[in-house]
Amino acid sequence: MDFHIEARDGAARAGELRLAHGVVQTPVFMPVGTSGTVKGMLPDQVAATGARILLGNTYHLMLRPGAERVAALGGLHNFMRWSGNILTDSGGFQVMSLADRCKITEEGVTFKSHIDGSAHRLTPERAMEIQYLLGSDISMVLDECTSYPVTQTQAADSMRRSMRWAVRCREAFISREGYAAFGIQQGSMFEALRRESSEALTSIGFEGYAIGGLAVGEGQGEMLRVLDFAVDMLPADRPRYLMGVGTPSDLVQAVLRGVDMFDCVIPTRSGRFGRAFVPGGELNLRNACHAEDNRPLQEDSDCPTSHYSRAYLHHLFKAGEMLGPILLSWHNLHYYQSLMRAMRRAILEGRMAAFAEGFRFHDKSR
Questions:
Q1: What amino acid positions are annotated as catalytic residues?
Q2: Domain limits at 126?
Q3: pLDDT tens sequence across 125-153
């Protein structure tokens, strides 16, 4: 994998990732395709928003339909008919979220499937093997996503186990042209632990580095406080990926601090529940105030959803028609990709600070 930084504006960077399935311009938002599909969207529709990389999940795909089956069917790209790049989360977050269904040891994690209760074992080696079978362009190391809140002692124990697993993941990763393995920084809210984690990962050596263990309930203010010191601890010549984030304002603030890559379910999940992202904030199309509003969802958008009125979209949700979630998921992904392109232009033109200062997004829907 090749990563080239084209421009810097303060801490913000604009760059290019060259991977096996094409070039990805950064900063970049990756739509979430957990089980081999971005919910409600055809791959061509996802690509039409400007997405060139999306996220799949090791945990879900190993359970159904199974990594070996996907490999036998030509890999995940062929299986889901996606020609762009794919990053796969190692499944660590999903396994840890099972809590009462999993047991963590030095060797790895044993857990019961949320689907049928069957027993499974996920080790660092198996996590990398599954991602190889899927054909992931970027494979994430298996880590323990530290819960929040947590004591410093608990965070240290969790982080150090993740670093030992990272060594095993690096050794198990099969290097080949255009493919990459990313390490994941942990350490919860503690600066000293984040630094220790970064130093351990850098000594192992990865093609890219992620910031994990955030967006787990700490709130934006605390997340940004951690990013203020955590981002610069990672190598400046490699891509930096903030996992599971976030709202539009989260993205702007994190790019301003030097983050290059993001993923989050927010745009598609919000779309399925009738919420649309537009400049300035969020619209709830279920609200009665939209029932007779003949305006398009967003006046200046070139997304196909702009052909439909707010009244029609309101009707679709009130009638329980599946077209409503499809159209709003499409619109929200288009909004997110447009936001990333706007930030990239701002960085290239040396005005990212002004862009961030002028960006206003009210999370409360109307």
A1: 89, 263
A2: 2-264
A3: 999 999 999 999 999 999 998 889 999 99
